[in-house]
Amino acid sequence: MSSPTLKVGIVGLGRLGQRHAINLAQRVPNAEVVAACSPVPAELDWAASTLGIATGYADYDALLAHPGLDAVFLVTPTSLHADQIIAALRAGKHVFCEKPLSLDLADCLKVEAEAARHPQLTVMIGFVRRFDASYHDAQQKIAQGLIGKPYLVRSQTCDQNDPSGAFMRFAPTSGGIFLDCSVHDIDLARWLLGNPVPKRVYASGTNAIHTGLQAFGDVDNGLATVEFADGSMASFMASRTMAHGHETLTEVFGTGGRLAVGSNPRLNRVEISDAHGVRNECTPDFYARFADAFLIEAQEFTDAALGRRTLSLTLHDATEATRIGLAMTQAMREARPVAF
Ligand code: NAI
User: Interface pTM (ipTM) of the complex?
Assistant: First the structure.
């Protein structure tokens, strides 16, 4: 590609899309946001007034036809991801898309097949934790043999309770807590264990506070165990009801040691000693924990699309995360082990 910068269209300007838009517009040197797309006029107004993105489209196909557009950054509802990726590839655009790739395995495979027809285009699904400095360091240490042979990952994504229950608006389309939250842990487990093949899944869950989730076959706390064909295992917890904040924690057990990332979900390095004891404040939400990783992820996508590096993760990784997440959801809903 002759252009020195990647001309990006940001699609979806909601809770996370605005964060990505700010990174791309202000903090990724080789990216230029040339247009935005959202069906909500106020979101396009925000992009124009806050970031100077003058061209806004309500219609995704119109964005794809924007002159000179190189890439799209999809931060849209999960149910739209597969179709929007395929349309972008057919229009000759590089694609970044938020996780999960899809809630439907056949759709994941369709996207993989379409991407294979366009090997010159970069397609990346945003498994942001791979770009966090601590997870990156842990993975390198495991690959170097620091803890011997890794055989068990125990990983959790636990969100602070939102008493307003605002997240309930995502319940009809999120795919449930395992596909929405644990999909990150599933991807980490595969990465840290060296991509083992899943064999069988057990899962269960409960609604501790948000009983309304039951209507969608969902829970506010879920537990799952995955057995892999090589004898390794992974155990996952996801929660929406933490009192103290957002706590992402991953432990990896190996034959020669154990690594843990995030045992203390500290907000920063300040330690408070007072009448309550010795403590630190906690990260309030996922963005406070992974802000740096979101930026590094966008930089990797941009550099890969410009042909300056290769991606460190594949589309197939995203398909596998969905495959395992679907089996976990089925095991919980049907209250039985599910074999692959
Ligand atoms: P949101 O509901 O706040 O935002 C969705 C955006 O998509 C809105 O701007 C909406 O106007 C726009 N939109 C809806 N239909 C559209 C269409 N047809 N064309 C273009 N834009 C359209 O949702 P949120 O929380 O920002 O999530 C978006 C995606 O990001 C989801 O797939 C979610 O799983 C993922 N996500 C990933 C996280 C991570 O840790 N990597 C954290 C939070 C969300």
Answer: 0.99
DSSP-derived secondary structure letter, 119: T
pLDDT in tens, 251-271: 999 999 999 999 999 999 999
What residues are paired with 272 via a beta bridge? Answer: 279
For atom 32 of ligand 1, the residue with the nearest CA is 78
Of 11, 15, 97, 292, the one to substitute when testing ligand 1's pocket (max ligand atoms within 8 A of C-beta) is: 15
Domains annotated on the chain, with CATH: 6-128+293-312 (3.40.50.720), 130-290+321-339 (3.30.360.10)
Q: How far apart are CA 267 and CA 234, in angstroms?
A: 27
Tell how far the Cα of 61 is from the centroid of ligand 1, in angstroms.
Answer: 18
Q: CA separation (Å) from 71 to 33, 84, 85, 99, 262? A: 10, 12, 11, 17, 34
What does the alpha-carbon distance between residue 129 and residue 300 come to, in Å, rounded to a whole number? Answer: 13
- The DSSP symbol for 153 reads E
Atom number of ligand 1 nearest to Cα 60: 19
302-336 confidence digits (pLDDT tens): 999 999 999 999 999 999 999 999 999 999 999 99
